[in-house]
């Protein structure tokens, strides 16, 4: 049973990057809004593994901007959230200080009482046992003890060490820390913790256009392009296009077009060039795309 997160989903802004830490938010955005992102989390004990990564999910600025424009998510300054959240927790602890101070005083008195009892018990023991050397307490079968022991065994070596067994209370031995009791920080960010829309590159109109057409988009660095366009979820489909953005009046080198077309055809994909066309009547933009495939390969 899937759990839908509360909208708008907070996107954490940390050191210039955008992250999602909730698995419910990740699955919801992938299922309902075709936002995949890139998982970058790794296991602390296996830092070298990079095949199956986990949370957090890193979003491209284009993905974060698209979600904010749709009203699905909001950008949150994670540094302010953590600082103000910890201050709120400290203030709450300060309000409960009298009860906590009384409890700490009771614990301190109990520890002092136990220390006095242990001291009186130690003083009542045999004084010869307290002065026995450490060699006498070691096992007799140890060869190091036999090697460095005195040739004339003293009377102290005949004494046996008394080991007192410590008993642990059942409630302390079986104590289990619950996974979670309540959210440690406020779930909903305040207005002063919100940030404006992310800054996006000039390729954002092309990204938004392809996303509106139903494509799943992911970074295309491994194929030498800006985006990879999938007709469905990348877990079920191969990408169809290598997408590169260009300005409407930008001059393109013919060799770049040939190289992109040959590369796309070589990996069984189409090479797509697109950009926003600015109309003269208003500031409206319409995106046009061109697909290039190399024949004879």
Structure overview:
This protein has helices at residues 23-33, 61-70, 78-95, 97-123, 127-130, 134-137, 143-148, 170-173, 204-212, 254-266; strands spanning 9-14, 17-20, 38-41, 54-59, 73-77, 194-195, 216-219, 227-230, 241-245, 270-278, 285-292. It has 297 residues and is an alpha+beta fold. It folds into 2 domains: 1-111 and 184-198, MutS, DNA mismatch repair protein, domain I (3-Layer(aba) Sandwich); 201-296, Trna Endonuclease, Chain: A, domain 1 (3-Layer(aba) Sandwich). The strands form 2 sheets. Strands 3-4-2-1-5-6 form a 6-stranded mixed beta sheet. The longest helix has 27 residues, at 97-123. The two termini are 47 Å apart.
How are the SSEs ordered, and which strands pair?
Blueprint: E1 9-14, E2 17-20, H1 23-33, E3 38-41, E4 54-59, H2 61-70, E5 73-77, H3 78-95, H4 97-123, H5 127-130, H6 134-137, H7 143-148, H8 170-173, E6 194-195, H9 204-212, E7 216-219, E8 227-230, E9 241-245, H10 254-266, E10 270-278, E11 285-292
Parallel strand pairs: 1-5, 9-10
Antiparallel strand pairs: 1-2, 2-4, 3-4, 5-6, 7-8, 8-9, 10-11
Region (Disordered): 89-191
GO molecular function, one term: nucleic acid binding
Protein name: tRNA-splicing endonuclease subunit Sen34
Put the structure in a nutshell.
It is elongated and about 100 Å long.
H/I helix tally = 10
- Say which CATH homologous superfamily of the largest domain is assigned: tRNA intron endonuclease, N-terminal domain
Elements, N to C (H/E) = EEHEEHEHHHHHHEHEEEHEE
- Poorly predicted ranges: 134-138, 157-165
What is the 3D form?
elongated
CATH architecture of the largest domain: 3-Layer(aba) Sandwich
Number of DSSP strands? Answer: 11
Number of domains: 2
Sheet with the most strands: spatial strand order: 3-4-2-1-5-6
Look at the helices and sheets and give the structural class: alpha+beta
What value does the Rg take, in angstroms? Answer: 34 Å
Beta-strand content: 15-25%
Q: What's the main sheet like? A: 6 strands, mixed
Through-space gap between termini: 47 Å
CATH class of the largest domain: Alpha Beta
The CATH topology of the largest domain is MutS, DNA mismatch repair protein, domain I
Let me know the average pLDDT.
Answer: 80
The helix content is 25-40%
